[in-house]
Amino acid sequence: MSEGDVAVKAWSLLLGFVVGLLALPLGLILFAESGLLSVDAVSRPPGWEVSVAHRALHASLARRAKGLRNPFAGSGSAPLIAGMKLFRDNCAGCRQRECRQPMGRAQFLSARAAVLARGA
After folding, report:
1. How far is CA 13 from the centre of its chain?
2. Does residue 51 or residue 116 have the better pLDDT?
3. Is there a contact between 91 and 12 (Cβ–Cβ < 8 Å)?
4. Rg of the chain, C-alpha, whole Å
5. Alpha helix (H) ranges present in 34-96?
6. How many Cβ atoms sit within 10 Å of the Cβ of residue 93?
7. Closest CA relative to residue 104, chosen from 89, 119, 84, 117
8. Are 94 and 113 in contact (CB under 8 A)?
9. Which pLDDT value is given to residue 117?
10. How many whole angstroms separate alpha carbon 37 and alpha carbon 83?
């Protein structure tokens, strides 16, 4: 094999590598531009997206939680009950689907949170 053949193969390999690096992002852009990606907030995400998101979430939480300890360990049910009361008083009006009447700050929203989430 001559030096010219080696140089041609090296450049071919480099060109193939660069084309491969550019093909994925360009393919994703073309896929998005064609309208094939779902962008509505109420659709169910595809399985691959859920899998990637869960792995990223778990890895991030594991990294951030290193060395942390539960400040309420061994303190009984009082913190849990206090948290439940805070949720009921401040969050349940918007967050619970079974809640019929808006409570707390939710009564001042122009549309119920469940309606806003559905986009209707």
Report:
1. 37
2. 51
3. no
4. 26
5. 47-65, 78-90, 92-95
6. 20
7. 89
8. yes
9. 45
10. 39
pLDDT exceeds 80 at position 111 = no
Cβ-contact 98, 85 below 8 angstroms: no
Q: Are 93 and 107 in contact (CB under 8 A)?
A: yes
- Tell me how far apart the alpha carbons of residues 96 and 98 are, in angstroms, rounded to a whole number: 5
Q: Residue 119 pLDDT more than 70? A: no
pTM over 0.85: no
At 68-110, the pLDDT tens digits run: 888 777 778 888 888 888 877 777 766 665 555 555 565 565 5
Helix, strand, or coil here: 114? helix
| Coil, strand or helix at 60 | helix
The token pair at 116 is: 């806003």
